[in-house]
UniProtKB/TrEMBL annotation:
The lineage of its organism: Bacteria, Pseudomonadati, Thermodesulfobacteriota, Desulfobulbia, Desulfobulbales. This is Guanylate kinase. Coiled coil: none annotated. It is an enzyme of class 2 (transferase). NCBIfam families: guanyl_kin. It catalyses: GMP + ATP = GDP + ADP. Its EC number is 2.7.4.8. The gene is gmk. ATP binds at residues 12-19. Gene3D superfamilies: Guanylate Kinase phosphate binding domain (3.30.63.10), P-loop containing nucleotide triphosphate hydrolases (3.40.50.300).
Length: 206
């Protein structure tokens, strides 16, 4: 039987660089999948349906919600976002670790469910001033959208202590090394022997 994959939660205020960091780390960590969320927000230039998000209408989102197809969902910055329960379950069953890029509300839902084991990581910008520079520098959002995201940032930052790990995305290389280290360390926990068998110390010393 294949050993089930692990769930990782990554949250950050918008503009902290979570997407950039994730893309970098996912290039060189194998057996790791990104959970493609459903959202009612419009695609940004350069985003692809089914890759960055599944872009759906409010009606489609509500229909999925009514069928209990979301592991968690939340309204974030005025749009709906949700994680597909069957998609995540399938990847975990195949022994693939799954990263959920979700907001602080979604993270609280998952970590509050004691039947689900997830490792949580918060990505913080070095300062709120730098966060604003990055949001503006990204060049994908209207002034109104930027203001909504900045307005929510302080509250989101106050949730950082609820996470097991904190990664400060100041220098991208350093942040990527730190995130990789977290993933690798969590995979290496002693109780996660591939066979599921306890270690036979006697056999090791013969
Ligand atoms: N709860 C929840 N939050 C999500 C999900 N997908 C994305 N988000 C969060 O929604 C927020 C907005 O994401 P996005 O629209 O891509 O904007 P960005 O953060 O400015 O790049 C971020 O905090 C994401 O982590 C999801 O499936 N569930
Ligand atoms: N460590 C960093 N230093 C400087 N700029 C960064 C860093 N990480 C990301 N960025 C830039 O900040 C902007 C926001 O990054 P993005 O990954 O879209 O953030 P998020 O997914 O958290 O909303 C992008 O223009 C990105 O290139």
């Amino acid at each position: 039987m294949t050993k089930s994959g692990q769930l990782f939660i990554l949250s950050a205020p918008s503009g902290a660089g979570k997407t950039t960091l994730l893309k970098k780390v996912m290039r060189d960590v194998e057996r790791l999948a990104f959970s493609v969320s459903h959202t009612t927000r419009s695609p940004r230039p350069g985003e692809t349906d089914g890759v960055d998000y599944h872009f759906v209408s409010v009606d489609e989102f509500e229909a999925m919600r009514e069928q209990n197809l979301f592991l968690e969902w939340a309204e974030v910055h005025g749009n709906f976002y949700g994680t597909s329960r069957p998609a995540v379950a399938k990847q975990l069953e195949q022994g693939v670790d799954v990263i959920l890029d979700i907001d602080v509300q979604g993270a609280a839902i998952i970590t509050g469910d004691k039947s689900v084991h997830a490792v949580s990581v918060f990505v913080a910008p070095p300062s709120l001033a730098e966060l604003e520079r990055r949001l503006r520098g990204r060049g994908t959002d209207s002034e109104e959208t930027i203001m909504v995201r900045l307005g929510n940032a302080a509250k989101e930052m106050s949730c950082a202590d609820d996470y097991e790990y904190l990664v400060i995305n100041d220098n991208l290389e350093v942040a990527a090394t730190t995130l990789r280290a977290v993933l690798i360390a969590e995979r290496s926990r002693g109780h996660r022997l591939p066979s599921g068998e306890p270690i036979n110390l006697g056999a090791l010393t013969k």
